[in-house]
Amino acid sequence: MIPPERRDYIYRHLHEHRTVAISTLVELLNVSHMTVRRDIRILEEEGKVINIAGSIQLNDALRQELPWNEKVFIYHHHKKIIGKYAASLVEDGQVVYLDAGTTTFEIAQVLAERFNLTIVTNDFSISQYLMKKPQLNLFHTGGQVDKRNYSSVGNSAAMVLRTLNVDIAFISTSSWDIKHGISTPYEEKVLVKQAALDIARRKVLISDSSKYGKYGMFHVCPLSGLNDIVCDAKLPILVQNQLQELDLELHVVDV
Q1: 3-state class of 19 per DSSP?
Q2: Residue 164, Cα to own-chain centre: how many angstroms?
Q3: CA dist 83 → 104, 132, 225, 237, 253 (Å)
């Protein structure tokens, strides 16, 4: 691998394993200890990782998300179960917003077998999948194209959403916690997520537990702005107890 490919591999590997020993990376990459340390130093300078006692972990301050085609394989089992559960919250005849994301894609695959639903999304992967399902009504927001995440973002997409009324919105995120609420490292995503939250009668955050405790530069909303959170049972018990004290419904899914 060339250096940028190695650093991408390290960053992707961390998203799946959270903390990785430097010696493990040396073995996985089949390069010298010095080479790995050089890659880690660059990732540290970019604010992506933290070096701790012979290991590295992701920085809680999220600087960059992985692209869609890499995120889709990480915690896929968790996302599939969360998606199936989240889809059970949808009632017949509803207008459903699916935010761009790999977990919302799992919801889409379940809803694809339903009838009498209208799906609104800014995600091209979701819309392409649902195009094959003639029994569903389908709307795409359009707008500025985020090529890394196969989605539309920015003010144009948000303006389209604000012309609609949605029964239930499933919001995805790469970073959330009680202190920072929902956040993102990308400013252009904020307007779309906020518009979806504003137009929806029921607002549902869906996230696997690996996203909790991270925060991006741009604030979307406090957790108090939600009606529901759907997450897996690996979310720490202390956090589950804190969330249950908020005025929302926490759905903990056993994975």
Answers
A1: strand
A2: 23
A3: 7, 19, 21, 21, 10
CB count within 10 Å of CB 26 equals 16
Burial code of 34-57, b = ≥16 C-beta within 10 A, e = fewer?
A: eebeebbeebeeeebbbeeeeebe
Q: How far apart are CA 201 and CA 115, in angstroms?
A: 21
pTM over 0.85: no
For residue 23, what are the contacts with CB-CB under 8 A and spacing of at least 6?
33, 54
pLDDT of residue 180: 94
pLDDT value, residue 63: 67
Q: Which residue's entry shows tokens 């896929």?
A: 76
Cα–Cα distance, 75 to 86 (Å, whole number):
16
54-67 tens-digit pLDDT? 888 877 766 667 66
- The answer to whether residues 106 and 126 touch, using CB atoms and an 8 Å cutoff, is no
Instruction: Give the Å distances, CA to CA, from 126 to 58, 108, 166, 178.
Output: 28, 6, 17, 29
